[in-house]
Structures are given as structure tokens and as C-alpha cells.
Amino acid sequence: MRVYAYLRASTCDQDETRAKSELIEFATDKQIEISAWFFENESGAKLNRPELFRLLDIAVSGDVVLVENVDRISRLNTKDWEALKHTINSKGLRVVSLDLPTSHQLLQTGDEFTERMLTAINTMMLDMLAAIARKDYDDRKRRQAQGIAKAKGNGLYKGRRDDFDKQRKIYSLLEAGKSYNYIQDIIGCSRGLVAKVSNNRQRELST
107 and 197: one domain? Predict the structure, then answer.
């Protein structure tokens, strides 16, 4: 059994590695080794997530997908969640989430009956939490749309403002030839944000 950790953040401005320490602490407590890490800046409402599917492609039957919360792996609608779940189940993989205690028992091997019972319970709980995560996503989107509509009606909405000061510093460091890792350490930002600024810089240089 190999354990693959998957960490996801929704946007390039968020740090997809923030929960790494929690997963390391969990693995240490359970006396398991994390074989590989997969980091991604994508919405959990999207089925097409390259790093998640790279993990699923590498993993084999009996391996574990370790996540911080179920919503890290899915905020999907019902159709897409069923498609993802089918891929996971058809490969014989186990999803273990820190916020789902029943899944922690899947890290231990037991007799066939016990494993089947644990898998059935865990599948039911995963379905429930995935549905809750999707509802939370839909609710937040609805509240956001209502807030924007109200602000527009009052003439207050100006759209999302980027952190220009942070991006300016990243731009300067890229101009100085600094590496992504160096910039992440100095600025304290996600790799996705560095890549975003780098792509914008490349477009400027090509025009």
C-alpha cells in the first residue's frame, strides 16, 4: 500500500501547500509514509484537474489517496462526482480524509468482511460529505452573486482587486532572474501566483 497526498487550493492566489504540515502530522501519528505529494491550484468544482488525475493514473489497487478535507477532492456536481468516484473505485483505491474518521481505518488491513464493511461505510460518508461540499459551493456562489448585484445597485462594485504590490515584487524578482522557489520563499506566496505573474511578463515581452 502506498499513500499519495493530494493538496488543492481554488485559485492561484491561494497556497495549495498550506495543509501539508497537517498531513505530515497525521501520517506520523498513523505511522505511515507518504510516497508522493500532488499540489494543484484548481477549483474543486472542476472534474478536469491534471494533478489529481496524474495521481489516479500512477496509483494501483490498494493505494491510498490522502486529503485534508473531502472538499479538497470534490465540490463536484452529482454527475461529475459519480464519474470521479467510478475512476477511484474501478482502480481499487482508498480515499482517506482527515475530516472523515471512519476513513482512517482503511489504512489498516484486516479480514475481507471487515474491509468490505469499512469500504461501504466510507463510501456512504464520502457521498454525504461530497454533497455537503457541493451545496456549500453553490450557496457561496449564490451569496456572492447577490452581494455583487447589491453593490452594483448601490454603485459600489468595482470588481476584484489584485494584490498589485506583491505582484510588482514578484515581477522585479523575475526580472532579476530569480527562481520560482526563491521567490516563493522571499515573498511568501504560492507557486501559482509566481507562474501567473511570469506568464503576464512573457506576454508583455512578446508584444
Answer: no
For cell 447589491, the residue is: 150
Residue 23 lies in a domain: yes
Residue 65: HSE in the Cβ half-sphere, 13 Å Cα cutoff: 32
* CA 141 to chain centroid: 18
Residue 16 lies in a domain: yes
pTM of the model: 0.70
Per the DSSP assignment, residues forming a β-bridge with 5 are 37, 66
Q: Which residues pair with 4 in a beta bridge?
A: 36, 65
For residue 202, tell me if it sits in a domain.
Answer: yes
66, part of any domain: yes
Distance CA 66, CA 64 (A): 6
Per-residue pLDDT of the chain (207 residues; tens, 9 = 90+): 899 999 998 755 456 567 889 999 999 999 999 999 999 888 889 999 999 999 999 999 999 999 999 999 999 999 999 999 999 999 999 999 999 998 998 888 777 888 888 888 888 999 998 999 899 988 888 888 887 787 777 765 555 555 677 888 888 888 888 888 888 878 877 888 888 888 887 877 776
Range of the domain at 186: 164-206
